[in-house]
């Protein structure tokens, strides 16, 4: 029973140190010490430099590609299990490989399910993440999953803009549920973009379902990768008479030509969270930290307190 009274500890993977430091500060404790030893061939080893026996530990690290980010999380989980940690919560602000959540064509993997199985096999006893690409990914796990929504921190930012004639927009049909949730909270209209792709990250055509003329548009999505969809949607909506177009996205992957597209587009502002660190700064990109939200939920998990109050839509 003595282990039940031990305070938790927070550790970070190398790519999420900045966010983890913010979370630890919001939680009210220092980040734990973990060392990463590199071998000349690229292999690496993680080592906790303090005792974690009998404690609940939170391992913070987004698992976006490259594969090293996921592998480092797995090694940390395995090391914690072998060091007799009592509970191991994998805090993955961005859950990588989530876009492969189903078989959409013959002979392809369901990578999200595979990653879920690997995390559990490594020894994770709880998962904490934000804005999964598909809600059903929670069902891939046989351990508790705390699925947080960035709307908790992004919607107050929208209200602070004090815009008139707001319309929420989804950049594709798959994001319509998210768009309707935002519109319900803000009590405004919704428009949907219908797009067709020739291949991944390449848009063939896009149409807007709904009226955008004379409206301040706010696009909402769970991630922005190459920014092709968001910038195309912004340009199309401005052509249709929109007053302005902003975008709210949780995960700023921003790969390939993303930054260049954003700078050249009609997007007035792109608001993202810090689940993934920005590769570089942009005058059009504003970052809202998710650290206070994660710290609060982690505290509630530690004290076995309900987290339902964190969901505002």
Automatic annotation (TrEMBL):
Keywords: ATP-binding, Kinase, Magnesium, Metal-binding, Nucleotide biosynthesis, Nucleotide-binding, Transferase
EC number(s) per entry: 2.7.6.1
InterPro entries tied to this protein: PRib_PP_synth_CS, Pribosyltran_N, PRTase-like, PRTase_dom, Rib-P_diPkinase
GO molecular function: ribose phosphate diphosphokinase activity
One family name in Pfam for this protein: Pribosyl_synth
Record's keyword annotation contains Magnesium: yes
Keyword DNA-binding carried by entry: no
Record-annotated Ribose-phosphate pyrophosphokinase N-terminal domain positions: 9-123
Xref: NCBIfam families: PRK01259.1, ribP_PPkin
Protein name: ribose-phosphate diphosphokinase
């Amino acid at each position: 029973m003595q282990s039940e009274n031990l305070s938790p500890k927070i550790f970070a993977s190398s790519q999420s140190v900045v966010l983890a430091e913010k979370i630890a500060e919001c939680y009210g404790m220092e980040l734990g010490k973990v060392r990463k030893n590199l071998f000349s061939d690229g292999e690496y080893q993680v080592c906790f430099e303090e005792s974690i026996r009998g404690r609940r530990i939170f391992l913070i690290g987004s698992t976006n590609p490259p594969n090293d980010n996921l592998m480092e999380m797995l090694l940390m989980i395995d090391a914690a299990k072998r060091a007799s940690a009592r509970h191991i919560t994998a805090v993955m602000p961005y859950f990588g490989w989530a876009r492969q959540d189903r078989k959409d064509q013959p002979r392809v993997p369901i990578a999200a399910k595979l990653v879920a199985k690997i995390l559990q096999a490594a020894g994770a006893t709880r998962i904490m993440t934000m804005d999964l690409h598909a809600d059903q990914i929670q069902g891939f796990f046989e351990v508790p999953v705390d699925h947080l929504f960035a709307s908790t921190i992004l919607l107050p930012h929208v209200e602070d803009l004090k815009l008139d004639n707001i319309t929420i927009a989804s950049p594709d049909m798959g994001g319509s549920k998210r768009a309707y949730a935002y519109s319900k909270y803000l009590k405004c209209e919704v428009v949907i973009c219908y797009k067709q792709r020739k291949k991944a990250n390449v848009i063939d055509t896009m149409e807007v379902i709904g009226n955008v003329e004379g409206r301040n548009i706010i696009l909402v999505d769970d991630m922005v990768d190459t920014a092709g969809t968001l910038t195309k949607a912004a340009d199309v909506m401005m052509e249709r008479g929109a007053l302005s177009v902003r975008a709210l996205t949780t995960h700023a992957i921003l790969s390939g030509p993303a930054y260049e597209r954003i700078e050249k587009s009609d997007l007035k502002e792109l608001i993202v969270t810090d689940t993934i660190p920005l590769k570089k700064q942009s005058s059009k990109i504003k970052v809202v930290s998710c650290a206070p939200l994660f710290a609060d939920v982690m505290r509630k998990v530690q004290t076995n307190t309900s987290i339902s109050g964190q969901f505002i839509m």
